[in-house]
Structure formats: C-alpha cells, structure tokens
Amino acid sequence: MIMAGLNASNENHEAEAQELRRRVAHLEGLATERDRCELQLREKEAFNFALFNYNPVLTVVVDRDGRVVRSNKAKLQSGDRLPAIGDLMYRDYAAGHATDMHKELMECIAANKSKSYPEMRYGKKILAITITPFPHGAIITSQDITERKLAENDRIRLIAELRRALDEVETLRGFLPICAHCKKIRDDKGYWNNIEDYISRHSFADFSHTLCPDCVKMFYPEIWEAKVRKAGG
Fold first, then answer.
1. If pLDDT is split at 50, 70 and 90, which confidence band does 46 have?
2. pTM of the model
3. For the chain, what is the domain count?
4. What's the CA gap between 57 and 52, in Å, rounded?
C-alpha cells in the first residue's frame, strides 16, 4: 500500500512538472512573439519617420485641434517662416489664404476625408495643398507651383499668339482681288485697300519704300543718268 501511494505521488509530481514545462514553453513562445512584434513595430515606426522626415514635399503634422505637432526636414530647410509647435494651423501660421483654410482643415479632420487644393494663391505664390487626416490629426503637404504655373501660362499665351498668327497668315491664302491698274486689294467687306495696308493688317510684314531701277529710269531720268555716268567713270 505504501509503495502504491508513493508511485501515485511520483506520477502526480511528474504530471505537474510536465504541465509546468508546457506552461514555461508557452510563455517563452509568447515572449518571443511579443519581441518579434515589438521589433516589427519599431522598424515600421522608423520607416514611417524616415518617409515623413526625408520626403521632399513640405509637410506639417497637426493634432485633432489643428495645432502644429511637427514639421519635416523639407519644411525646416525651405527658408520659409516656420510654424512653432502648438501654433494653430491657418490661424497663428499661414493665415493669409483667401479661403478659410483652418475651417477646411477642421472639416477634413472631422469627416476623416482627404482634400486637395491644386491651385491655392498665397500672397505672390501659387501652392498645391493636400490635407490628409489620420486618427490623431492630419498631415498637410504643400508644393510651390508658382514657376510651373507661370511657365504654363507663358506656354498658353505663346500658343494663342501662334494661332492668331496662323489665322492671319491663312487670310492671305487663295485668290486676292487686286486692281490691275492701281494695285489696290478688295477685302471681304468690299472695300478697296492699298496693298501695303492690306498686307500689314493680315500678316507680320512691314514696308519700307524705295524705287526699283526701272522706276528710277522712268520717273527720275537725271538721277539715272548720273548713276550710269558714275558707274562708267
């Protein structure tokens, strides 16, 4: 009986030891998984910070009250006046927009919806602004597109000038009714115009008046003879 009781007790102790070893192995596995998750989280945070800080686009982060939390490296190195931590965005800082951008910002945060402003005038600048909300506030990016917009306007103006020039050149194509005697040209309204006036209005040509040799000989014979004698002498 005594031996049977000892064997049963040993079996119980062994079972308890096995259960303890199982629990320890489980806890060790949980600790390893926790460490792995913490490492992944740290790596993700480091990646996100690098993505934010070294993004070439000027970026400001605000909290849910619209107060500045941080600015990225591009913003810090832009040469612009910088927002102070805690500034109310678009009130204490960058309040010169024609649109109430603080109201727009708070509406984006409240609705949790992004919004873009592709051509927002700010003083002499033209900015492309995007507001992107996230659970703790919003990320605001801005790009100065002033030079690009000026170049685009110059291109549009040049195209318009070329089209006008093409239209003017087009009017000189085809048959022009011209007087066989005085050489005046009849326009599409039925008026007769001096050839110089007509061509000047319908092209980029300018006129400078002179005399051809035949006309000098016919109308100014003394000048013609003087030229002939000079050439022969």
1. confident
2. 0.55
3. 3
4. 9
